[in-house]
Amino acid sequence: MARRKKQTGTVNGEVPKPDFEMAVKIYRKDIRPAQGTVGEAAQEMSTAYKAIKKQAHIQPQAARLAFRLDAMEESKRDDYLRCFRGLLKELKIFMPSDLVDAAQGNGDAGGEVIPIGERKPPQLATVPRDDSDLAGGDDTPTASADDAEAWVVFDPEANLYIDPTGKDWAAFADCGRFTRTRAQEIIDSFGEDADGLQIVDSAGPLPGPMVSEAAE
Fold this sequence. Notes:
Number of strands: 4
Strand order of the largest sheet: 3-2-1-4
Shape: globular
Helix content: 25-40%
Order of helices and strands: HHHHHEEEHE
């Protein structure tokens, strides 16, 4: 999968206005369906996030966080948002009032960073027939050292890990474990396209929503 260099700047001298509706449409149409076939859809997901950045003018990192919250279990999301909102207040990180939005009559100008609203009625959850996957299986990370094959290479742009071949992408459960030296060699092999690739100890905290429950 080709990784282009990051581009910044304005369009015709103007800062593009974020199109949140377009970002959600791209997520529901392209990103969420692609998550079912992670390996084959890695390119499609990467292209979709680039579309969110270039066409919807939304930062991909912000989109990933919003979409991860959308897929999160309700009670876990509520706790996450309360903690996140409290930390923003303590750190005095506020959404600045946008004079352009105010002039256009946008009611969200200067409002809450996290919107407050009514929750949808609860729905019955389905229980899988086979609960063996709830136990975590064999994906539980083990302690590792630099010379042990317990290091993984994470691609934050694709939100996936490098597979055992060192050339393709996969979810955490199917990713490759390498020695630290080998992981660095894999990153070096991507040349200029290696921008952002990370070496992560599989025994520690792992980035990305594609991480299995056992590894969290």
